[in-house]
Amino acid sequence: MTDDPESPRPAPPQEVVDAVREAVEAGDSARLVDLLEPLHAADVADILEQIRAGERAALLRLWGREIDGDILSEIDESIREEVIESLAPDVLADAVRELDSDDVVDILEDLEEPAQARILGALDREDRAAVEQSLSYPEYSAGRLMQREVVSAPLHWTVGETIDFLRSEEWLPDQFYHVILVDPRMKPIGYVTLGRILSARRDVRLSDLAEESFRVIAATEAEADVAYIFTQYHLISLPVTDQAGRLVGVITIDDAMSVLDEEHEEDMLRMAGVGEESSLSDGVWDTVRQRFPWLAVNLVTANISALVIGMFENTIAVIVALAALMPIVASMGGNAGTQSLTVAVRALATRDLTASNAKRVVWRELVVGLLNGVGFAVVMGLVAWAFYGRDVWLGAVIGAAIVVNLVVAALSGVLIPLVLHRLKLDPALASGTFVMTLTDVVGFFAFLGLATMVLL
Amino acid sequence: MTDDPESPRPAPPQEVVDAVREAVEAGDSARLVDLLEPLHAADVADILEQIRAGERAALLRLWGREIDGDILSEIDESIREEVIESLAPDVLADAVRELDSDDVVDILEDLEEPAQARILGALDREDRAAVEQSLSYPEYSAGRLMQREVVSAPLHWTVGETIDFLRSEEWLPDQFYHVILVDPRMKPIGYVTLGRILSARRDVRLSDLAEESFRVIAATEAEADVAYIFTQYHLISLPVTDQAGRLVGVITIDDAMSVLDEEHEEDMLRMAGVGEESSLSDGVWDTVRQRFPWLAVNLVTANISALVIGMFENTIAVIVALAALMPIVASMGGNAGTQSLTVAVRALATRDLTASNAKRVVWRELVVGLLNGVGFAVVMGLVAWAFYGRDVWLGAVIGAAIVVNLVVAALSGVLIPLVLHRLKLDPALASGTFVMTLTDVVGFFAFLGLATMVLL
User: Fold this and answer.
1) ipTM of the complex
2) In chain A, what are the domain boundaries?
3) Where are its TM segments located (chains A, B) (predicted)?
4) How would you classify residue B188: left for phi > 0, otherwise alpha for psi between -120 and 50, otherwise beta?
């Protein structure tokens, strides 16, 4: 126990990072150990992520023996493989052996074959079997997320029997918050919080202390559902069952919190058309590769807009001011579309947008698009009239085009993610690019088309 | 305890929502109670959010007596006031009295004065004092988030003394996962997990069971820091101290998880320029009001782009194809800028982007922008040459403009959020609009400017 509680200064402070760098540069391993020793594994992992690749290799060489499993499990995937490969086999074996099964699985998932084999080889037979069993569940499933170390008790036990059992048990998980009640076939049928066990008399039956609401999840269910259930029902742990309904593991809230965080990151990155695996520690080439595909899609869609504009070259040749004004229509649409889109993607992720209210939400977006459209049409119509040749009809044309484009933007912003969701695709999947393309094309077409009809 | 664990089907299924609606329409309160009774408060809240305002009022009239505090605490802020106002005073009083202090504070924060007074009036004196004390901490601070119900013990107690104390204590919080060790001045100095207490012999001292790492947070610290500490260090509960360092409350992980979720939402909505308070249950006018401001900003910035284009009207009048091609340059920049921006905003939120690596990340973005720029410049240069008059120089101009704009996009995508962060503003704050403006202006200027110099 520390006498002085660590102050909650987020992240390892800059001075520590700088001092670590100096120690590494000086090759001063004693100083390095002094600096890193008091830090939480998560902070050590952050330092490893923040320094340059060369410094990282030097640090690991100087400090290699001391690295423990928690650091491997905290470190970002983008550099984990590099770190694991730099460790001596016996150091790696020691590091991995102290981890719970879910953490080992989490590390293994993202590694290439040879690194995986090195880690599996370092485990003793029983742990290896547990890890391999977890890996047999589909990726991103509850089975991959659970830890196999579970504390369970028969329904008929009393508080006293439970306490005696826990006292006699040599090995208990690091983190457990419930005793799960099971029937003779190991089917989970309820759970009791440790707080209730501690505050009850020894002769009280566990079944009388069980929580009112109780949920389990099948090992094959999706990770995203796990995160949802934890947030929706404020759970601390969730028992996992196999096909026969038997208890095979438990998921704790810290794992659910990581999933929630990852899901969110995925949504943001996907909406922006960035590879969802992207990370700040990725190198230049990885980053180029992640971003290239959606930029390529955007190049194609931008050329479609150019074709639309090209259709009206004769109109632009006559009234060149149209060329200056047309991006305004497109840009207002793009902005309004992004607003609707963001709200819809978020609402689908939190499951607030459902079949019950989809029609109402689409309708609301339409009305909002129309109202904002009319508002900005009036303003922009006046601006165009005042500054682009005092032509009332030019003002009318840009106003009408803005109304059309803002309605299309509002509708596509909510319909595109709804359709992606219905097709069982991620609603966030680069929907930004789709919405922008649509509002560009519609914006240019409506504005230049109306201009051709009205102004020529 | 339920005999059959509820299956983890996310959200109340469509059939239940439909059945509830039918019961409300038929005015069948017995059926309504039957339908809602077995549901978790979070699911009842979801149903209330998903039905129309009229149906909601009818439902609450039919079912009013049965509503409990948990439902009020689960319900979305956008309709909470409406629900609270529809309840009879005694129903509201009963509902609020069963809640923990942090939940009451959470409800009160978002209410207008008269509704606040109604709820405070419903509490008994002691609870009211606790709630008012929490409200005296700044908004979005740890003090607002904590529950005041804490289980603590003197450092010198044994396991046996602790268990005897817990058994004799009439009142314990619903959720507690640690016993917090305090010195005689109530300063927290460590904690012991309940699992360790349960598995130790009665004569073991609590101080021998305390967790290795221990953190506290001051009541005045920001909510965002709370969420960060929970994720970074995988905490389950975090003791809160007052200015004198005395234990005044505890924050549990479910509250931290909600904060994390809200922070995510805020980031997404802010980046898109949507009011961060926006919700799917908002009415049309609220939604128009939330979205109008950033659309107005966008109108101004779009007019700046128009001015830039206007500077080159003579060039466009000579080569009309430029009008068709110029949005391609702008759009590629906008897209690339959004990619960098999203990665940077996310990295600032997770505190992966720090002073230690900012220079390196900016540099990486620059190189990535340059490489992607050159790649797409070659492709688009060839396309422009092939389809727009076989003019080598036109291809060269659009290529060069794309390189310039992608470099600017990449840099501004990371620099704008970094500057906002340095200014202690939220990096997500409509940075999308800023980046888009910049890439539009630079794109049009570079392309049309080069064209004027080279092609005329």
Assistant:
1) 0.86
2) 14-145, 152-253, 284-455
3) 318-345, 366-387, 393-420, 432-455
4) beta
